[in-house]
Specification:
The chain is α/β, with parallel strands linked by helices and 308 residues long. It has helices at residues 23-32, 53-60, 75-80, 82-103, 135-150, 171-178, 198-214, 232-242, 286-293, 297-300, and strands at residues 13-18, 38-43, 65-68, 106-112, 155-160, 163-164, 185-188, 192-193, 196-197, 220-223, 230-231, 250-253. The chain has a domain at 13-168 and 195-228 and 269-284: NAD(P)-binding Rossmann-like Domain (Rossmann fold, 3-Layer(aba) Sandwich). It is built from ten helices and twelve strands. α2 packs parallel to α4 (82-103).
C-alpha cells in the first residue's frame, strides 16, 4: 500500500509537519500532498520555534498527527552548545508531546542512531540499551524519553541515520561535487551504518501515521533505516559506480584522520523487527534506494553521462 491508497469515504486526517523547510520536512510535505485523505500544515523553523511552549500548543491544536522533523542537526555545534541543542532536541520535543497530549493528537518524533554508543557488532534492536557518546545524542535521547513518558499510548519514536536526499547538502551530494575537482577522495572506512534516503523515510512516516490513526500500529520505537550495511567509503564507491565514475578514486582512511569535536558511533546499524507489529515490511536495501534516488532530477546534473 502506498501513502495515497485509502478506502473510499475515509475521513480526512489533519497533519502538522514541523521543521517543514528541512531535508526530511520537504519530503514529508511532498508525500503527504499525494494523499487525498490528508489535510497538511507545514511549518518551517521561522514559523514555529518548538522551544516556545505557548506557540507549540497553538500550532498543534486542531491536528490529528504531528510529525516533528524540527531539530538541531549540527552535531559538532551541539558539542560546544549542548544546552542550546538540548533546548530544541529535548525540551522542544517535550513541548510537542505535552501539546499533543492536551488535544489527543499522535506524535511521530524523528530521532537518531546517535542515541547508541556504537560499540555493538550486531544490529541495535528497538529495545537496545541507549548510551549516547556526544551531546547531540544526549539531547535526542531526552526528546525520545519525553515522547515515551508523556504519550505512552500516542507517541512514536522513529530513529533514522545517514540521511541523504534531494534537498540541501549531505554526504552523497558532497561526494559527487568533489568528484569534479579532485582526482581522489579519502573516505572513512571504519564507521558502519545504513545510508538512508530521506524520501523513503518520509513515505514510511506517512504510512506509520496512517496505521497509528487506524489503530493498527502500536506506539513506541521504530527504526526507519535502509536494509543492509556499509561504510562511508563503501557508500562513496557505490555513488561513484552508479554515477559512471571510477570507484577506485575513493581511497580508505580512518576516523582518526578526521578528528572532530563530537565523537561518532563506529557502528550505527539498526534492526527493524518492530515494523511487523505495524503490519509494514522493513525498508528496502540501501543500494536499491540509492539507485532510485540518483535517478531523481535533483541529482541529474551531478550524475550526467560523460563525467570521469
Amino acid at each position: 500500500m502506498t501513502p495515497g491508497e485509502r478506502t473510499p469515504h475515509t475521513r480526512r486526517v489533519r497533519w502538522l509537519v514541523t521543521g517543514a523547510g528541512g531535508k526530511l520536512g520537504q519530503d514529508l510535505l511532498a508525500v503527504l500532498r499525494t494523499d487525498p485523505t490528508a489535510e497538511v500544515t507545514g511549518l518551517r523553523r521561522t514559523e514555529l520555534d518548538i522551544t516556545d511552549a505557548a506557540a507549540v500548543r497553538e500550532a498543534v491544536a486542531g491536528h490529528d498527527i504531528v510529525v516533528n522533523a524540527a531539530a538541531w542537526t549540527d552535531v559538532d555545534g551541539a558539542e560546544a552548545s549542548e544546552a542550546a541543542a538540548t533546548a530544541v532536541n529535548g525540551t522542544g520535543v517535550r513541548h510537542l508531546a505535552d501539546a499533543c497530549g492536551r488535544v489527543g493528537a499522535r506524535l511521530l518524533q524523528v530521532s537518531t542512531d546517535y542515541v547508541f554508543s556504537g560499540e555493538a557488532r550486531t544490529p541495535y534492536g528497538e529495545d537496545a540499551a541507549t548510551a549516547p557518546v556526544n551531546a547531540y545524542g544526549r539531547g535526542k535521547l531526552a526528546g525520545e524519553r519525553a515522547v515515551v513518558g508523556l504519550l505512552p499510548d500516542a507517541g512514536y519514536v522513529v530513529r533514522t541515520s545517514w540521511l541523504y536526499g534531494e534537498h540541501g547538502r549531505d554526504f552523497v551530494t558532497t561526494v559527487l561535487e568533489l568528484a569534479e575537482t579532485r582526482d581522489t577522495l579519502d573516505v572513512v572506512d571504519d564507521q558502519h551504518g545504513q545510508p538512508t534516503w530521506s524520501h523513503a523515510v518520509a513515505e514510511r512516516l506517512v504510512l506509520l501515521g496512517g496505521a497509528a490513526s487506524a489503530g493498527t500500529a502500536p506506539p513506541g520505537i521504530y527504526h526507519a533505516t535502509a536494509g543492509g550495511r556499509t561504510t562511508w567509503m563503501g557508500l562513496a564507491r557505490t555513488v561513484f559506480e552508479l554515477a559512471g565514475l571510477d570507484p577506485r578514486r575513493i581511497r580508505p582512511t580512518t576516523s582518526a584522520a578526521y578528528a572532530r569535536p563530537a565523537p561518532r558511533p563506529a557502528f550505527s546499524v539498526l534492526g527493524h523487527e518492530r515494523w511487523a507489529a505495524a503490519g509494514l515490511p522493513p525498508m528496502p536495501h540501501w543500494r536499491t534506494s540509492l539507485e532510485e534516488a540518483l535517478r531523481r532530477p535533483a541529482f541529474g546534473a551531478l550524475t550526467a553521462p560523460g563525467r570521469q
